[in-house]
Amino acid sequence: MVYELRIYECVPGRLPALHDRFRNTTRAMFEKHGIEVVGYWEDVIGENNRLIWMIRWQSMAEREKKWDAFATDPEWVAARAKTEEAGPIVARIRNTLMRPTDYSPAP
Fold first, then answer.
1. Using CA atoms, how far apart are residues 8 and 75, in angstroms rounded to an integer?
2. What are the chain's domains?
3. What is the crossing angle of helices 74-83 and 60-72, to 10°?
4. Is 11 in contact with 62 (CB distance < 8 Å)?
5. Cβ distance 17 to 26 under 8 Å?
6. What does the alpha-carbon distance between residue 14 and residue 34 come to, in Å, rounded to a whole number?
7. 40-50: pLDDT as tens digits
8. Rounded Cα–Cα distance for residues 67 and 35 (Å)
9. In this structure, are residues 38 and 107 in contact, taking their beta carbons and an 8 Å threshold?
């Protein structure tokens, strides 16, 4: 099992556009490609203007196959371009891949 933690830091003022894109487009595209999202979070205290989310993968090979299929899907490419007609939404992406320790509680 591999967990992917992704932190999207938005262009100032564009967090609502990112939420709209995930709510109305991205989640459906993930379902289409079998991408299992653990959850989505936003900051309550501390930094703001970020969307934090996590994916659970069975293996790195699964990640490569499904992520590549998602990223190159013409429907996703078109939807992403449309949501960025007013300018970029995400300024920076932080990404880390993790595996559970042998003493980690089962999800």
1. 21
2. 2-98 (3.30.70.100)
3. 60
4. no
5. no
6. 27
7. 999 999 888 99
8. 8
9. yes
Tens digits of residue pLDDT in 6-22:
999 999 999 999 999 99
Residue type, 70: F
Token reading at 48 = 């703001």
Opening angle at CA 81, ends 64 and 58, nearest 5: 20
Q: What CA–CA distance (Å, rounded) separates 29 from 75?
A: 8
Do residues 4 and 97 make contact, with C-beta atoms less than 8 angstroms apart? yes
Q: How many CA atoms lie within 13 A of 63 on its CB side?
A: 16
| Whole-structure pTM value | 0.91
pLDDT at 7: 98
